[in-house]
Amino acid sequence: MAYTALQLINRSFYLSQVVSRQLQTVDGEQITDGLYLLNSIIDYMNTDIRLIPYFQRYEFDSIPGTEEYFIPDLLYVDTLTFNIGVVRYSMYEMTRKQYFEIPRVDDVESLPFSYRVERELGGSRIFMYFVPAAVYQMKLSGKFSLQPVILQTDMSLTYDTFYIEFLRYALAKKICEEWGVTFPDESKMAFEAMRKKLMDVSPPDLSIQKQTYFNKGPFMDWQYINIPGYWPF
């Protein structure tokens, strides 16, 4: 069943009690303001990946000799791998200091076993080292920006019912702040409970991987560069 942004805005105004469900209707100016506030909330969700419960898979091809790749709307990378044919190879993420500060020869073209993700306006830029020596099929799993809506947007095509309900409470709370009224205590408690549970739906993988000479992971150094072939980790 369709659930449009307009329906969400109307129900949010009723939940906020700025508009009485039995006695009033949401007027045109309130709907316009509600749409603006809803999109501001959706945009704000992009500042905290814990509030976005959806992971997506994204594929792109590397370009020989190219270190940087801009991915639109990308917020967070949980895993990044590359394929040579049907064989998949793992990569490991480096910290900003590890990637941009440690000494290295920049133009070494080989298998890209390490990467760094930097958030930018409109998405994220992925840096790879070694610089890809050929066209490899890159596969990432991550979280992407939530997209703005219009009044006719069917939100049920993008979001689960629980997330739409969370947005309804978030918008009602925002409406109360904008109109200078108190958000009902029961509604506030329900909103905080939903927000807390939402953070546990699809949390990022925070496990730590240590890279050593004895690890089976994709540790690469100058001892390996001149060894022909590659290893399926």
Textual characterization of the structure:
The chain is α+β, with helices and mostly antiparallel strands and 233 residues long. The chain has helices at residues 5-16, 28-45, 96-101, 161-179, 185-198, 222-225, and strands at residues 56-61, 68-72, 74-84, 87-90, 92-93, 109-110, 114-120, 123-129, 131-132, 137-144. A four-stranded antiparallel sheet has the order 1-10-3-4, with no helix packed on it. Helix 4 (161-179) crosses helix 5 (185-198). The longest helix is centred in the last third of the chain and has 19 residues, at 161-179. The protein is elongated.
Structure at a glance:
By secondary structure, this protein is of the alpha+beta class. The chain starts with a helix and ends in an 8-residue tail after the last helix.
Task: Give a quick account of the main beta sheet: strands, pairing sense, barrel closure.
Answer: 4 strands, antiparallel
How confident is the prediction overall: mean pLDDT?
89
Structural class: alpha+beta
Distance between the termini: 46 Å
Give the overall shape, derived from the CA principal axes. Answer: elongated
Strand content: 15-25%
Number of helices: 6
Helix-strand pattern: HHEEEEEHEEEEEHHH
Instruction: Please list the strands of the largest sheet in the order they lie side by side.
Output: 1-10-3-4
Number of strands: 10
Helix content: 25-40%
Rg over CA atoms = 23 Å
> Could you name the ranges where pLDDT drops below 50 across 5 or more consecutive residues?
212-219, 222-228
